[in-house]
């Protein structure tokens, strides 16, 4: 990661549990024309949803973009990994219930120039039940986001491992679906159910939703299995797949126990480098159209006589 620099003194050694200083890349990342809202979903548990959410969000923030992570999982793993308090305070649950304005539950993430988090809390476990009787129960998150989404370039919603009302709310609120796929034997099992839910939400609730991004996680290039899964996903989703797999790497799994992302915990480790590359690729794909393929060599102005432009 040649372009990673710390702008402030400080930083953290692996034994710190606090991030000191602000990390920013020397070379910034492309800003999208409008806010890109991603739902990170896969109802299979433990495939790397949260790890992918927090590390891509952190990397984009280091690239100079304004990023918000919404922890929509009662487990609160994204809140933990980003080091924001979340146990006994108001969070996304209170917003969904209409008890708190969304602006009052946004927290800053230490160590990043522009990374915010709306934490989960334990009450979120009641949301699936309590939402059922509410008016427009699938659209609560979408409606809440209207007020703050213009403040960000990227919003990532980390979903629980289920296709219940919380995930439906996330799919209804997002423009893009990001599916992390773990490169292991049952990787594609259950994907059809997720794609079916995606299709229903797109048809009934959110015609703008697109499955735009697939990220391979816990990849082990030495095994035939990882390579076979990658080839299989590539053949089904050639445009959606980001062809930079995230390696299985111990530093990635250690980082949350220090309330950090791997981007600060060990920025030069293979996992951090891969997440940085994936984030840059996501930002490149989201560039405003007129910035893509711009080549100054093909701009050709023919001058007529008298300085008049043809
Ligand atoms: N690239 C990686 N290398 C090593 N371990 C990883 C990697 N990615 C994730 N893990 C570990 O795998 C476990 C599951 O990851 P994670 O919590 O991100 O999955 P998840 O899909 O969010 O899980 P859940 O379905 O419970 O929300 C965690 O212990 C995490 O630290
Ligand atoms: Mg998770």
TrEMBL record:
Domain annotation AAA: ranges: 36-210
Region (Disordered): 1-21
InterPro entries: AAA_dom (IPR025669), DNA_Partitioning_ATPase (IPR050678), P-loop_NTPase (IPR027417)
Pfam family, one: AAA_31
Protein name (database record): Unannotated protein
Organism (species): freshwater metagenome
């Amino acid at each position: 990661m040649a372009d990673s620099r710390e702008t402030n003194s400080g930083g953290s050694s692996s034994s710190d549990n606090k991030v000191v200083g602000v990390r920013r890349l020397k070379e910034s990342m492309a800003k999208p024309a409008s806010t890109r809202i991603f739902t990170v979903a896969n109802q299979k548990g433990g495939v790397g949803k949260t790890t992918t959410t927090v590390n891509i969000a952190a990397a984009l923030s280091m690239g100079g973009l304004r990023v918000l992570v919404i922890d929509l999982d009662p487990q609160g793993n994204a809140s933990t990994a980003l080091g924001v308090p979340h146990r006994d305070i108001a969070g996304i649950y209170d917003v969904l219930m209409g008890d708190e304005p969304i602006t009052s539950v946004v927290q800053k993430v230490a160590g990043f120039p522009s990374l915010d988090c709306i934490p989960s809390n334990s009450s979120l476990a009641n949301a699936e039940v309590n939402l059922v009787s509410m008016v427009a129960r699938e659209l609560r998150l979408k409606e809440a986001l209207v007020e703050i989404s213009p403040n960000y370039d990227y919003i990532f919603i980390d979903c629980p491992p289920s296709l219940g009302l919380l995930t439906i709310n996330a799919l209804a609120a997002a423009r893009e679906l990001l599916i992390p796929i773990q490169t292991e034997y049952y990787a594609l099992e259950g994907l059809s159910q997720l794609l079916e839910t995606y299709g229903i939400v797109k048809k009934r609730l959110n015609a703008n939703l697109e499955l735009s991004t697939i990220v391979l996680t816990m990849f082990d290039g030495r095994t035939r299995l990882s390579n076979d899964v990658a080839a299989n996903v590539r053949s089904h989703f050639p445009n959606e797949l980001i062809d930079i797999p995230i390696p299985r790497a111990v530093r990635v799994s250690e980082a949350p126990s220090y309330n950090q992302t791997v981007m600060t915990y060990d920025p030069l480790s293979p996992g951090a480098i891969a997440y940085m590359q994936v984030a840059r690729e996501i930002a490149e794909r989201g560039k405003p159209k007129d910035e893509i393929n711009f080549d100054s060599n093909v701009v050709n102005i023919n001058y007529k006589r008298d300085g008049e432009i043809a």
